[in-house]
């Protein structure tokens, strides 16, 4: 058999267990390679177990003395870092977690001179335990600090194993941990207990949203209802059996009450809208889906209007046509157009429903999200069926009136023309022999009658023009006209009237202004403006100015008369409107209406600048050549003439 000492030495040197032998002074006498591998270095000669600050700090030196007294001892697990020692300096070493078994080595006499330390590296185990402990601590902090009411119930009797601080506060500080659910919270709803037992039985997760729980939360006799979002999660043991439930509860009372308030406001608003006589429809922005219709709208539809139906189906559900009778597709329906952001302002459509056929005038507005309500498109509309019927009858009456005026004007014009010619003949006879008895007796009367006949003829012509305008029979005959020459002709013709009104008619501006206009209608425009200036500016000069600027002729007629108020300026160009009382100034109020119509027919504009007591200036602007087919025809005539 080999030398036993050699066998022991080989076992010591090659053992995977780190060993070190220390003498009674604590100096290391021997260590194996496993020791050096674990610590990173061997203890230097000056190292002593009994001067080791870490050993002394943890009270292990007492255990070491017991080993020298012949006892085998086991040290607790400690973290050990040689670099932390003060009485020696070691740079190459590892920080490790170790536990040691110390046993005595006695000599032949039985005296213990040395002790052996067998080391166990438990660094990985200790780090794992510390990590687990840290994870548990973090989880506990999470459960205790989370804004959730959390509890853990174990067993079929649903006994509290954990309750978060928030849950305890919500339940008035009741003692929960270790108690049964029904004992700790005796007023809990039975269906909630049943729900928890079902989770224990089935092992399936259960979620309850906005669960109304009515209990004495503070434990002081005051019962109230609060709303919760609950999540019950089953817990399983090692065999996969359900042995507990963890419940996460989040209070949503404020949100639920706020939504209830919004819903109450919504119902109140709908009740108010139902009392309104005006039909109102609400639709979703973007989609155009109708979400509400009031009673007035339902009556027109012939029953409850379909809501929350896909907008693509509206083309079949709603029969809507334009005023020409063409049916509108889903994308052209008022709700769809308004939902796309188009603002409707009096859109007129025909709605064919079970209750009848209605003409509607539809508007739209977008109400932004506010007070908990989402954005909504509002479509109020008016049933203007009767108005349209009345409008049609009025249009028919106006047409009959215009036809009557046209016929009457023609019928009146013929005898007036004959009478005017006869009076002109008498006037010429009086001028030819002013000294005759007849001229002496009748010349002034004939002159007065002729003025009245001409005035009556002007009124008849005005009515005839109005009837032509109303019936669309106002035709223009374009030709080359010199505006300056035409103005001078009109001014010369008004010379006698200007003398009677004690006015001077002054013509100024560009010498020649040639354009393509209807001569007779342009002369009528100038005549009406000069006549008005003489009528309202009597006793003051009337100034007529003509000019050309940027391809447009401008005619300006200025009087220094009574002026026109700002309110009257907005209406004097309308039919039968007057700026002053007809008691002081005669006429039918048609002159400026006809003038405006003629100017606009020749593609021009007319406006007035005036103030009360400061006179008035009427300005007419006309293009030198009309646009469109008329301009082409005039150009062709010019080419043929050349």
UniProtKB/TrEMBL annotation:
Sample GO molecular function, one term: phosphorelay sensor kinase activity
The keyword Kinase is assigned to this record: yes
Enzyme class: transferase
Gene Ontology terms: cellular component: plasma membrane
Domain Histidine kinase: 407-626
Pfam families linked to this entry: HATPase_c, HisKA, PAS_4, PAS_8
Keyword set, alphabetical order: Kinase, Phosphoprotein, Transferase
Entry annotated with the keyword Translocase: no
SUPFAM superfamilies named in the record: ATPase domain of HSP90 chaperone/DNA topoisomerase II/histidine kinase, Homodimeric domain of signal transducing histidine kinase, PYP-like sensor domain (PAS domain)
Reaction catalysis annotation: ATP + protein L-histidine = ADP + protein N-phospho-L-histidine
EC number(s) per entry: 2.7.13.3
Designated name of the protein: histidine kinase
Species in which this protein is naturally found: Myxococcus stipitatus (strain DSM 14675 / JCM 12634 / Mx s8)
């Amino acid at each position: 058999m080999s030398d036993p000492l050699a066998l022991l030495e080989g076992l010591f040197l090659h053992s995977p267990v780190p060993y070190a032998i220390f003498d009674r002074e604590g100096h290391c006498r021997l260590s194996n390679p496993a020791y050096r591998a674990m610590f990173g270095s061997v203890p230097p000669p000056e190292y002593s177990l009994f001067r080791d600050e870490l050993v002394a700090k943890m009270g292990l030196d007492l255990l070491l003395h017991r080993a020298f007294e012949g006892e085998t001892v086991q040290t607790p697990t400690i973290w050990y870092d040689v670099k932390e020692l003060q009485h020696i300096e070691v740079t190459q070493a590892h920080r490790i977690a170790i536990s040691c078994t110390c046993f005595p080595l006695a000599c032949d006499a039985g005296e213990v001179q040395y002790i052996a330390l067998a080391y166990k590296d438990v660094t990985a185990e200790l780090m794992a335990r510390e990590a687990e402990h840290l994870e548990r601590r973090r989880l506990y902090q999470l459960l205790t600090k989370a804004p959730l009411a959390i509890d853990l119930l174990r067993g079929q009797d649903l006994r509290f194993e954990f309750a978060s601080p928030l849950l305890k506060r919500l339940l008035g500080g009741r003692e929960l941990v270790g108690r049964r659910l029904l004992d700790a919270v005796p007023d809990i709803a039975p269906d909630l207990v049943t729900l928890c037992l079902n989770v224990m039985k089935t092992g399936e997760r259960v979620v309850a949203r906005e669960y109304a729980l009515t209990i004495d939360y503070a434990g002081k006799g005051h019962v109230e209802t609060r709303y919760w979002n609950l999540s019950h999660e089953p817990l399983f043991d090692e065999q996969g059996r359900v042995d507990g439930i963890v419940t996460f509860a989040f209070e949503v009372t404020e949100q639920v009450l706020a939504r209830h308030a919004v819903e109450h406001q919504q119902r109140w608003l709908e009740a108010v809208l139902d009392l309104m006589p005006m039909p109102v429809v609400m639709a979703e922005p973007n989609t155009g889906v109708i979400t509400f219709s009031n009673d007035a709208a339902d009556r027109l539809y012939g029953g409850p209007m379909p809501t929350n139906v896909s907008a693509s189906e509206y083309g079949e559900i709603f029969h809507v046509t334009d005023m020409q009778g063409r049916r509108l597709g889903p994308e052209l329906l008022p709700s769809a157009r308004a939902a796309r952001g188009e603002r409707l302002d009096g859109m007129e459509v025909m709605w064919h429903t079970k209750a009848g056929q209605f003409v509607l005038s539809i508007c739209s507005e977008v109400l932004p999200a506010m007070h908990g309500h989402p954005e909504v498109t509002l479509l109020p509309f008016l049933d203007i069926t009767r108005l349209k019927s009345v409008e049609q009858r009025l249009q028919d009456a106006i047409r009959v009136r215009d036809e009557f005026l046209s016929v009457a004007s023609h019928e009146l014009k013929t005898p007036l023309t004959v009478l005017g010619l006869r009076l002109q003949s008498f006037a010429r006879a009086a001028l030819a022999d002013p000294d005759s008895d007849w001229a002496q007796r009748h010349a002034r009367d004939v002159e007065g009658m002729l003025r009245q006949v001409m005035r009556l003829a002007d009124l008849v012509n005005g009515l005839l023009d109005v009837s032509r305008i109303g019936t669309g029979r106002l035709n223009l005959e374009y030709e080359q006209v010199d505006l300056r020459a035409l103005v001078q002709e009109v001014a010369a013709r008004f010379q006698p009237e200007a003398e009677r009104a004690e006015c001077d008619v002054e013509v100024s501006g560009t010498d020649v202004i040639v354009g393509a206009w209807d001569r007779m209608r342009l002369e009528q425009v100038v005549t009406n403006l000069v006549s008005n200036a003489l009528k309202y500016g009597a006793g003051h000069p009337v100034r007529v100015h003509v000019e050309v600027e940027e391809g447009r002729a401008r005619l300006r007629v200025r009087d220094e008369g009574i002026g026109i108020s700002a309110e009257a300026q907005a209406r004097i160009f309308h039919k039968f409107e007057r700026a002053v009382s007809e008691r002081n100034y005669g006429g039918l109020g048609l002159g400026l209406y006809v003038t405006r119509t003629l100017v606009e027919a020749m593609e021009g504009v007319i406006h007035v600048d005036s103030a009360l007591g400061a006179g008035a200036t009427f300005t007419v602007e006309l293009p030198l050549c009309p646009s469109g087919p008329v301009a082409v025809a005039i150009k062709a005539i010019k080419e043929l003439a050349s």
